[in-house]
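Researcher: Here's the sequence for the chain we discussed earlier.
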Amino acid sequence: MGRTQASTYCRICEPLCGLEVTVEDGAVRRIRADREHPLSKGFACPKGIAMAEIQNDPDRVVRPLRRRADGEFEEVGWDEALDDIASRLRRIREEHGGDAIGWYFGNPATFSYSHPVWLSAFMAALKSPHLYSAGSQDVNNRFAASALLYGSPALVPIPDLKRTDLLLMLGANPLVSHGSVITAPRIKEDLTAIVRRGGRVVVADPRRTETARAYEHLPVAPDGDAWLLLSLLNVIFEEGLEDAEACAAQARGAGTLRKVAKDFPPESTQGRSGVPARTVRDLARDLVSAERAVVYGRTGTCLGRYGTLTAFLIDAVTLVTGNLDRPGGGIFGAAPMRLDELLRVSGLATYGKTRSRVGGYPDVLGTFPAGVMAEEITTPGPGRMRALVVSAGNPVRTVPGSAALEAALDELDLLVCIDLYVTDTGRKADYVLPATTFLEREDFPLPFLQNHLTPYVTWTDAVVPPRGEARQEWQIIDDLARRMGLALGAVALQRLAYRMGIRPSPRFLVDLLLRTGPKGDWYGLRRGGLSIRKLRTHPHGIVLGEHHRTGTLRRRILHKDKRVRLDPPEIVAEIERLAAEPAEAEERDEAYPLRLIGMRELRSHNSWMHNVPGLMRGKRRHAARVNPKDAAEYGLEDGALCRITSEHGAVELPVVVTDEMTPGAVAVPHGWGHQGGGWRVANAAGGANVNLLASPRPGDLEPLAGMAHLNGVPVAIAPATGPER
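Model: Thanks. This is the structure I predict for it:
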């Protein structure tokens, strides 16, 4: 077969960097950054380059596995596996109803254009509400806030980095994570360009992150973001600095927002936000006086007790300063295929359409919080979950208080995992079905088209054939549905094709949507001017314009009056709940005086990248970061083992004493404490599962989106008494 070069793009994180893959005799030999990619321009992080090791890892699952009575796995054929799984699911459905079957999908599913559509169709055919995702440990609050603000959970503004003069960034570290809910492969250059043209990048975080060190660091208290944002609004309104024209033209409820912000002057919030009152006042005035400014927040703002409120306030500050849907502010991306419109037409753009059986949480884009899964399995009654399919996820390590879910899985009648590896969840499964890597499948960046900082579209074919008997997730789901007698139709075009007797492929649907084109002619492309065939002639993708257009918000809002809601009752209630909290000094628990936050590492992407020796290279060691003041107070030594304890659990890991931490905060990276991916031997990956410190109680989830409380968790820290692992 010889040696060939193939162009594709990375699907590990949101920049979607271009990759050049060397293929020899049908196998991946080398991956490097694509210098001809118009956006990433020769950049790719270590994780993307290391995907070759995942692709060729001998521990990958490449044939269906069935768990024997002794707990070990054996290889079986696809027909045998799918026939048995379908038979058992049919029996559960007949005896208990379709709502006895659940599905959890992890973060990698979002990077496939076919996987989420087919699993949503499968669950819709079952009429089961038990659909869960990693979004409740990551981003669902952002979608909930958008539903309240704009009437659409899929309408999310991105910061216009290329034109802004002042960026206030909360809970984000894009020099390590490379950006989230924004697709900007060279985001470091975009941030540096702001400063070079005389602007500012202000990074609010309890830790002096890599991004904060590069620009301006604004130390904040863990889980203090909502207090900071409300105090900014207080100053803006009380000093008459709001953009009255923008508030009148774009929004409804500015008066209510002014009224509730009145109770949060920075002098009274500084103990909770961690930001001095004078600094807050100066920052508020700077946001108003800057010609173009924007506020942006990510995962660090999502996982506290007020995640949806915080996401809401981020957009509210941007709007009242006159920067929403304006160049250099928060803009709404357009694309040849708009995700918000597709989800609306398909009936999937839901928030609060249904509520979970346990906890009564609203659905977010049709999914419920993973934090209720354990009790949905163990709580008797109609709708109890008796079977679960897990695709591209490891919930027994990622959900809050994960020990409870690990125990609950033993009560299921059937557990099936679709994955690259036998994860900790997979070790409890009846079947583990082998999925393809992203190098083994075609793809289209459907979920990210609106998030591209530069309007862009691309298509990639599979670079290599699947290893062994691995299959794409949508094919597994489609085959399983056929065996169960289910007709899939989550998307309108999919339903139409099924009625015509056609079993449509994802490629068929995407090509049809591309050829049909969007409403309007946003990029000068003629109706039907795009197709998969055309995209294949541009292996590095097509740039559709220099910037996204502004002024599109009004026609995309789904509220009947086409105005942004600044006064939804749910948000007013959350602000009242926040205001009722005791003062910071009163709230501090003597038993758990510190606050735990998460952090991202450059050479890690949740758990599965730990299977890559080349990525680890001896540089990775799971450790807790603490401030020197706290280290001295609690008797901790740099490099020694410590024990971190919460009300719900305890973990042990080494300490790194560093002044990058603000006093009172402890940072621990997530994604550790799991077993390696080998199915014959469970190789310990080391580290500790920080989610054991979080509450497993469904009632402790954030109320508006069911978000896990993983930031600002009260903890105590002390030297460990046992030997270092």
